[in-house]
Write a structure and sequence with these properties.
Number of helices: 4
Number of strands: 15
Structural class: alpha+beta
Largest sheet: 8 strands, mixed
Length: about 325
Amino acid sequence: MLQLLKALQSSVLAKVAGLFFLLLLLCIPLAEIDSINRARGQSQREAADELAATYAGPQTMVGPLLLVPYVERWMEPLRDAQGKVIGQEPRSKELAHVVFPDKLHIEGTMAPQERYRGIFKIPFYTLNAALTGGFAAFDAKAVPHSETDSKIEFKVPFIAFNVSDLRGLDGSPAMTMSGEALRFKQRVPGIADDAWFADGIHAPLTGAALSAWQANAPVAFDMKLGLVGQDTLAIAPIAEETTAHLRSPWAHPSFGGRFLAAERSVTPQGFDAHWRVSSLVTSRASRCAPACRGAAATPPTGRRPPRAATSARCRPSTCRSRSRSTSIR
């Protein structure tokens, strides 16, 4: 027996088997630790979802856009049962033409904050931003005719603006155009329910702003807003030239996405970042215009316009800062 034990002690195979057995024993607590980590991660995601449902979720900001509703009228031949033309029948449909800003500059500060759900800390931010820019003189010839020999009758245009979760708005945004204060109202009128900004807010042009638009003059705007969001802020670069300057005392941002910050500075006191994006490198027209152009009313075919996707993200989560178009994340 002693000889067998001595043989096992000197056997390389026995030593390898012993090490393998110990490794298997160590895998048991490691598996338990991994299971606990997964459960904690899932619980943290559930906590974030609960706060998003009761407070505010991630935000995507799109706008401001100028929407020009109009009615297109035309005549169609009226035929009898044999297909013979016996007269003309008036037809019409309501549509909307979208006008993108010539320039859009976003100047904002993001204050990080943390909210608790159980043992979990969920990152939030408060954005205070000023949006300035302008729309070029309106060109009625730029509005396409969808029917032959049709006539277009324009209605009063309005500003459309949207964020993913309107509950995050700190009061109503304050906007002026050509010196005229505009008042925002719920939803965007005349837009199909599945249009990507239908549940946003709108402000009809009035006073000096409406007069400038009717005179085919450029219209400048200034907009101030406060916005609370969780984890992510996305900004769509919708203008011919979109610039953004965002600052935050959060010292650990993470930048990423389609368009990185042109300039950025990260210090223990926070970060300071600038973005510059041209419409030449964005897909705003293909994403936004179809959703707006056919959105003022459902065409006779009954088809609804496709949803448009935003192209910028910004996340000050762990206050990570990322961007797909002009933004920080």
